[in-house]
# Entry
Amino acid sequence: SGTLLVGLLPPADGPRPGASVDEMRALVAGGVVFRIAVATPLGRWQPIGELTLDEVLPADAGDVDFDPLQYTGGGLTPAPAWLQTVRSEAYRLSRRGRHAPQEPRLEPEPDRA
# Structure
Protein backbone atom coordinates (compact mmCIF):
# COMPACT_ATOMS: atom_id res chain seq x y z
CA SER A 1 0.00 0.00 0.00
CA GLY A 2 1.06 3.60 -0.30
CA THR A 3 2.02 5.82 -3.19
CA LEU A 4 3.41 4.09 -6.27
CA LEU A 5 4.47 5.46 -9.61
CA VAL A 6 3.40 3.40 -12.64
CA GLY A 7 5.35 3.56 -15.86
CA LEU A 8 6.44 1.79 -19.02
CA LEU A 9 10.04 0.79 -19.58
CA PRO A 10 10.95 1.00 -23.28
CA PRO A 11 12.32 -2.01 -25.13
CA ALA A 12 16.10 -2.04 -25.54
CA ASP A 13 15.70 -1.94 -29.32
CA GLY A 14 12.88 0.62 -29.17
CA PRO A 15 12.53 3.92 -30.97
CA ARG A 16 15.02 6.69 -30.42
CA PRO A 17 13.89 10.02 -28.97
CA GLY A 18 12.21 12.08 -31.66
CA ALA A 19 11.15 9.06 -33.75
CA SER A 20 8.61 9.91 -36.44
CA VAL A 21 5.04 8.68 -36.40
CA ASP A 22 5.86 6.42 -39.37
CA GLU A 23 8.77 4.88 -37.45
CA MET A 24 6.53 4.29 -34.45
CA ARG A 25 3.83 2.71 -36.63
CA ALA A 26 6.40 0.35 -38.18
CA LEU A 27 7.68 -0.63 -34.75
CA VAL A 28 4.16 -1.41 -33.47
CA ALA A 29 3.21 -3.28 -36.66
CA GLY A 30 6.21 -5.54 -36.10
CA GLY A 31 5.22 -6.12 -32.46
CA VAL A 32 6.84 -4.30 -29.56
CA VAL A 33 6.86 -5.15 -25.85
CA PHE A 34 7.07 -2.58 -23.08
CA ARG A 35 7.64 -3.61 -19.47
CA ILE A 36 5.10 -2.24 -16.98
CA ALA A 37 6.91 -1.11 -13.85
CA VAL A 38 6.15 0.44 -10.46
CA ALA A 39 8.31 2.39 -8.03
CA THR A 40 7.92 4.15 -4.73
CA PRO A 41 8.47 7.92 -5.04
CA LEU A 42 12.20 7.57 -4.25
CA GLY A 43 12.65 3.93 -5.24
CA ARG A 44 13.84 2.04 -8.28
CA TRP A 45 11.53 0.81 -11.04
CA GLN A 46 10.44 -2.80 -10.57
CA PRO A 47 8.96 -4.59 -13.60
CA ILE A 48 5.60 -6.21 -12.82
CA GLY A 49 4.23 -7.11 -16.25
CA GLU A 50 4.30 -6.48 -19.98
CA LEU A 51 2.29 -4.53 -22.52
CA THR A 52 2.49 -5.82 -26.09
CA LEU A 53 1.53 -3.60 -29.01
CA ASP A 54 1.18 -5.39 -32.34
CA GLU A 55 -1.58 -3.66 -34.27
CA VAL A 56 -1.70 -0.14 -35.68
CA LEU A 57 -5.05 1.61 -35.84
CA PRO A 58 -6.00 2.65 -39.37
CA ALA A 59 -5.42 6.31 -40.17
CA ASP A 60 -9.18 6.90 -40.44
CA ALA A 61 -9.93 5.44 -36.98
CA GLY A 62 -10.24 8.93 -35.53
CA ASP A 63 -8.96 10.25 -32.25
CA VAL A 64 -8.25 7.92 -29.37
CA ASP A 65 -9.75 9.21 -26.14
CA PHE A 66 -7.70 8.59 -23.05
CA ASP A 67 -8.38 9.99 -19.61
CA PRO A 68 -6.65 8.06 -16.84
CA LEU A 69 -8.20 10.35 -14.26
CA GLN A 70 -11.72 9.09 -14.94
CA TYR A 71 -10.94 5.42 -15.54
CA THR A 72 -8.21 4.12 -13.24
CA GLY A 73 -9.81 0.86 -12.08
CA GLY A 74 -8.63 -1.51 -9.38
CA GLY A 75 -9.13 0.99 -6.58
CA LEU A 76 -6.26 3.17 -7.83
CA THR A 77 -6.37 6.89 -7.10
CA PRO A 78 -4.11 9.21 -9.12
CA ALA A 79 -1.91 11.45 -6.98
CA PRO A 80 -0.96 14.12 -6.08
CA ALA A 81 -4.35 15.84 -6.08
CA TRP A 82 -3.02 19.25 -7.21
CA LEU A 83 -1.43 17.73 -10.31
CA GLN A 84 -4.58 15.79 -11.16
CA THR A 85 -6.54 19.05 -11.12
CA VAL A 86 -4.18 20.43 -13.77
CA ARG A 87 -4.25 17.21 -15.81
CA SER A 88 -8.05 17.02 -15.66
CA GLU A 89 -8.33 20.50 -17.13
CA ALA A 90 -5.76 19.66 -19.84
CA TYR A 91 -7.73 16.56 -20.92
CA ARG A 92 -10.99 18.53 -20.91
CA LEU A 93 -9.51 21.31 -23.06
CA SER A 94 -7.90 18.79 -25.40
CA ARG A 95 -11.30 17.17 -26.04
CA ARG A 96 -12.86 20.58 -26.59
CA GLY A 97 -10.05 21.64 -28.96
CA ARG A 98 -10.53 18.44 -31.00
CA HIS A 99 -14.32 18.87 -30.97
CA ALA A 100 -14.49 15.48 -29.25
CA PRO A 101 -17.28 14.46 -26.87
CA GLN A 102 -16.60 15.70 -23.35
CA GLU A 103 -16.83 12.14 -22.06
CA PRO A 104 -14.07 9.85 -23.39
CA ARG A 105 -15.33 6.80 -25.24
CA LEU A 106 -14.09 3.46 -23.98
CA GLU A 107 -14.66 1.45 -27.15
CA PRO A 108 -14.13 2.07 -30.87
CA GLU A 109 -16.86 3.84 -32.77
CA PRO A 110 -19.47 1.29 -33.96
CA ASP A 111 -18.57 1.68 -37.63
CA ARG A 112 -14.88 1.04 -36.81
CA ALA A 113 -15.33 -2.19 -34.82
